[in-house]
Amino acid sequence: DIQLTQSPSSVSASVGDRVTITCRASQGIAGWVAWYQQKPGEAPKLLINRVSSLQNGVPSRFSGSGSGTDFTLTISGLQPEDFATYYCQEANSFPLLTFGGGTKVEIK
Amino acid sequence: QVQLQQSGPGLVKPSQTLSLTCAISGDSVSSSSVAWNWIRQSPSRGLEWLGMTQYSSKWYNNYAVSVKNRIIINPDTSKNQFSLQLNSVTPEDTAVYYCARGSWRAVDYWGQGTLVTVSS
After folding, report:
1. Around Cβ B28, how many Cβ atoms within 10 Å?
2. Please, which residues bridge with residue A7 across strands?
3. End-to-end Cα spacing for chain A
4. What confidence tier does A108 reach under pLDDT thresholds 50, 70, 90?
């Protein structure tokens, strides 16, 4: 099975900062990579699918990129509502879905 | 707008069966373009996909290897819902359980989550 390693596991940032989260796969992924945002006590929310496709209603400050084994989620201009935990997910072996360990974005 | 409403007990005794139900509104459990999943989340295991059911001319189920011998996911077309049954639970099965809709190999709608504690 593919393993996903996210880095960093946590990051402290200020409003307005640019934050980049990396998701590294243990083997190459065809391009079925998604990113989720989760706030305490809530279910995860899908932000991006198929590496870079923004879901309807998700602000354009969120963007995704990558290929092969390395993928990134970038938040350009962090807003107060963006402080949360972010997860990557791959579906190379669909229907099996594999999630990364999460990256917590905290207020500096 | 798709909504998923979970129901079921929050406390299960070790060796017994965990049973949860997910009622769907705004979509059909028989829709061939989506899959209906169960996913759990715990501090020790993170987000863990457990399995799915999908209708595509017939019903298909797929389960995670880690629970394959003790899990059943069943669709109920008469009530437009699907269920999770996890047998022989241990404290390691304590987690928040989510039902979720899969589309384009990601999860676009989630239930509200149910904290299930396995304890005597």
Report:
1. 12
2. A22
3. 36
4. confident
CB-based contact B106 A46, cutoff 8 Å: yes
> Which residue among A1, A94, A99 sits closest to B47, beta carbon to beta carbon?
A99
∠ CA A22-A27-A32, rounded to 5°: 65
Nearest CA in chain A to B110: A43
Residues in chain A within 8 Å Cβ distance of B37:
95, 97
Q: How far is B94 from chain A (nearest CA, A)?
A: 16
- Rounded Cα distance between A84 and B28, Å, is 31
Supply the mean pLDDT for chain B. 97
Cα–Cα distances in Å, from B79 out to B21, B61, B84?
11, 19, 15
Cβ–Cβ contact A30 with B under 8 A: no
For chain B, the helix, strand and coil percentages under 3-state DSSP, each to the nearest 5? 5, 60, 35
B82 to chain A, minimum CA–CA distance in Å? 17
Confidence band for A31, pLDDT divided at 50, 70 and 90 = confident
- Given this model, what pLDDT does residue A63 score? 98
Position B39 confidence tier, pLDDT thresholds 50, 70, 90: very high
- The answer to whether the Cβ–Cβ distance between A95 and B52 falls below 8 Å is yes
